[in-house]
């Protein structure tokens, strides 16, 4: 399989609207990560636009886990927007710090709950696909391919990462790095070549974000001492 088959051929069957939406979602997603690196509150309005676009895209491609995580992103973005506004002196930028032991315990709880919840959703996927009718439907996980199982895991990873970001914790970048890297082959497999490139960019930007936030915290600690 060559690059044409991976990144161009799938789009031959897409409508202009589908392609435009994916490109738009990618652009706003990259902008959101950029603002996050800069600890700029604009991470949230740009992120909300991107996540709402991807709710539509991922639902239509059967990636229910990622679809739901984007619904969660939208809600968490509103929460984070409010939280960052309250904790920002200039209402634009925020200070960052490392997570506490208590926050790590809660994050672990979020991860496990998400794994269980998304697996249950996939269990009922045949029922959902059959327009919420049990007629001729067999429930179970037999229909899941490797991309769907990765979707379950990445959903949980991103959920924790989003929560840590709203709390302005440096560790959020670790979850974004791992999740974004895993998503690249999953999106290629699902025929979303543009989105797979987006996740490559996200991975690189997340690494830069981790370095930037860690450096910012260290500099602030030196000033305080």
UniProtKB/TrEMBL annotation:
**Cellular component terms per the entry's GO annotation:** plasma membrane
- Topology within the bilayer: Multi-pass membrane protein
Q: Give UniProt keywords alphabetically.
A: Cell membrane, Membrane, Transmembrane, Transmembrane helix, Transport
Localisation: Cell membrane
TM ranges are: 17-35, 42-62, 68-84, 104-124, 146-166, 173-190, 196-213
GO MF terms listed in the record are: nicotinamide riboside transmembrane transporter activity
NCBIfam families linked to this entry: NMN_trans_PnuC
Role according to the record? Required for nicotinamide riboside transport across the inner membrane.
The entry's family comment says: Belongs to the nicotinamide ribonucleoside (NR) uptake permease (TC 4.B.1) family.
The entry's protein name is Nicotinamide riboside transporter PnuC
Q: What is the organism of origin for this protein? A: Chryseobacterium polytrichastri
């Amino acid at each position: 399989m060559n690059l044409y088959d991976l990144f161009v051929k799938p789009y031959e069957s897409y409508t202009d609207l589908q392609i435009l939406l994916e490109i738009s979602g990618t652009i706003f997603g990259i902008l959101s990560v950029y603002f996050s690196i800069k600890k700029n509150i604009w991470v949230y309005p740009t992120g909300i636009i991107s996540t709402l676009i991807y709710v539509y895209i991922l639902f239509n491609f059967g990636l229910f886990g990622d679809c739901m995580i984007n619904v969660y992103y939208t809600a968490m973005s509103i929460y984070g927007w409010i939280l960052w506004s309250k904790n920002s002196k200039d209402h634009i930028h925020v200070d960052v710090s490392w997570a506490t032991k208590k926050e790590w315990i809660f994050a672990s709880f979020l991860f496990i709950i998400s794994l269980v919840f998304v697996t249950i959703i996939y269990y009922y996927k045949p029922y959902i696909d059959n327009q919420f009718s049990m007629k001729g439907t067999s429930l179970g996980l037999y229909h899941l391919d490797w991309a769907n199982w990765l979707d379950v895991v990445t959903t949980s990873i991103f959920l924790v990462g989003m929560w840590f970001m709203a709390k302005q914790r440096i560790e959020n970048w670790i979850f974004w790095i791992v999740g974004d890297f895993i998503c690249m082959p999953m999106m290629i497999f699902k025929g979303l070549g543009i989105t797979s490139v987006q996740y490559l960019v996200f991975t690189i930007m997340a690494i830069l974000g981790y370095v930037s936030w860690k450096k910012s915290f260290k500099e602030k600690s030196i000033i305080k001492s």
